């Protein structure tokens, strides 16, 4: 029994001391990082009209986001309070576009408000467990004995008159209770701070509702696109390979009947059957390639896009820097997006050359497809681009088309994703 009580005491003490250490780290960062970042952000935003802020503001706001993201991670890992990231996707290129995206994001201003309020609130809540423990230990270890030696008439907790047995006992008891309270309630106090972080740094109700609405729309678009894809596959099978296989079966049956009576006619039917089987096999391969190309599964997005570029009737410059493999659905969506854009280049652009650039910047896959054609591409006029836009939206992806009359055309597509495994060279 005593061992169980002792074990619980040491576990409580360990958790409490760990909370004190974590609170001290947070309190130091609240002052050392939070206040300078807030001041720098406000000053840099104010200096945007004179040009200096165009350089400083993105750096300062990025620092605020990194500081806020660190608090989100700590809130989840240390206190079990999840704080999802509320930021909107930023353009991958162009410092002015990224700055405009930051300033238009409501989460940026909530970050700044949190940084300002975090200085007093974070300092108070994060230092409170450590202060309780230190002050309690001071009452137990230092204050009572110091009172005995110096002859003070006041204890650290309340006036006890002349120091004696009662005063010493009071200091010891109250100090022990305060120390125990700090150790026991330290994790709960830090959880209260994590809830404060969640209240300002988590997505708002409006943002969550917008997210739900967006997911509902993309899910409906995905279901419609999947149904249309299934109908296309059924139609291609019925009108193509299935019809050829039926004709192949009939020709083989006729050849069996004519084998004895008219061998030459039977040989002609068998030759037709062989040709029909080759065509049916080709159509089946094309159908499978349209569902999920085998080269994509074997060689990844890099090899599949390289093979696709070699099959086109115009030169395509391909540059890919993706040091890993994305999940299969994301990789498939990226491949078919690039394939559709290149198909549009061949069919409609009148281009002499095209280029594809794919890279991964840490949390998203960036794909750019361009050509030197006549321009004037409009996503609203063609079903192909709209279909790709819906397909990317199912993964929170985006597509932007820049195609002035006379060209060039550049299609920028982004897919949020993480790389699950390192890229391997094809054998």
TrEMBL record:
Keyword set includes Membrane: yes
Occurrences of domain Histidine kinase/HSP90-like ATPase (ranges): 333-417
Domain of life: Bacteria
Name of the protein in its database record: histidine kinase
Presence of keyword Transferase: yes
TM regions (residue ranges): 21-40, 46-68, 112-137, 157-178
Residue ranges of domain Signal transduction histidine kinase subgroup 3 dimerisation and phosphoacceptor in the record: 229-296
Entries under InterPro entries matching the protein: HATPase_C_sf (IPR036890), HATPase_dom (IPR003594), Put_sensor_dom (IPR025828), Sensor_HK_TwoCompSys (IPR050482), Sig_transdc_His_kin_sub3_dim/P (IPR011712)
One Pfam family cited in the UniProt record for this chain: Sensor
Protein keywords: ATP-binding, Kinase, Membrane, Nucleotide-binding, Phosphoprotein, Transferase, Transmembrane, Transmembrane helix, Two-component regulatory system
Domain annotation Putative sensor: ranges: 29-201
Recorded catalytic activity of this chain's protein: ATP + protein L-histidine = ADP + protein N-phospho-L-histidine
EC identifiers of the protein: 2.7.13.3
């Amino acid at each position: 029994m005593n061992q169980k009580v002792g074990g619980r005491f040491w576990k409580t003490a360990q958790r409490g001391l760990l909370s004190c250490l974590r609170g001290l780290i947070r309190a130091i960062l609240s002052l050392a990082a939070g206040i300078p970042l807030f001041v720098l952000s406000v000053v840099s935003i104010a200096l945007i009209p004179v040009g200096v802020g165009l350089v400083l503001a993105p750096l300062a706001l990025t620092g605020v986001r990194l500081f806020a993201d660190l608090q989100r991670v700590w809130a989840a890992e240390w206190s079990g309070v999840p704080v999802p990231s509320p930021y909107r996707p930023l353009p991958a290129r162009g410092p002015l576009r990224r700055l405009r995206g930051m300033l238009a994001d409501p989460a940026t201003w909530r970050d700044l408000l949190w940084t300002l309020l975090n200085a007093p609130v974070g300092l108070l809540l994060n230092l409170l467990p450590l202060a309780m423990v230190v002050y309690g230990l001071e009452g137990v270890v230092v204050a009572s004995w110091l009172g005995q030696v110096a002859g003070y008439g006041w204890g650290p907790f309340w006036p006890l008159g002349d120091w004696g047995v009662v005063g010493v006992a009071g200091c010891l008891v109250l100090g022990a209770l305060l120390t125990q309270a700090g150790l026991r309630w330290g994790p709960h106090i830090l959880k209260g701070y994590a809830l404060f972080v969640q209240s300002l740094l988590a997505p708002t109700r409006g943002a969550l509702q917008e997210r739900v609405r967006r997911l509902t729309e993309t899910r409906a678009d995905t279901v419609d696109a999947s149904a249309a894809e299934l109908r296309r596959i059924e139609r291609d099978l019925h009108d193509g390979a299935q019809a050829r296989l039926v004709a192949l079966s009939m020709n083989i049956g006729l050849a069996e009947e004519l084998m004895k009576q008219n061998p030459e006619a039977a040989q002609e039917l068998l030759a037709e059957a062989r040709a029909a089987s080759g065509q049916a096999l080709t159509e089946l391969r094309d159908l499978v390639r349209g569902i999920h190309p085998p080269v994509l599964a074997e060689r990844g997005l890099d090899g599949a896009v390289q093979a696709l570029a070699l099959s086109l009737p115009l030169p395509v410059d391909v540059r890919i820097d993706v040091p890993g493999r994305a999940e299969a659905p994301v990789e498939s969506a990226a491949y078919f997006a690039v394939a559709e854009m290149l198909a549009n280049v061949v069919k409609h652009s009148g281009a002499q050359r095209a280029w594809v650039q794919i890279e991964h910047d840490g949390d998203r896959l960036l794909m750019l497809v361009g050509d030197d054609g006549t321009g004037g591409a409009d996503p609203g006029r063609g079903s192909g681009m709209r279909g790709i836009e819906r397909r990317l939206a199912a993964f929170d992806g985006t597509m932007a088309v820049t195609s002035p009359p006379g060209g060039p055309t550049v299609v920028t597509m982004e897919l949020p994703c993480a790389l699950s495994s390192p890229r391997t060279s094809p054998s």
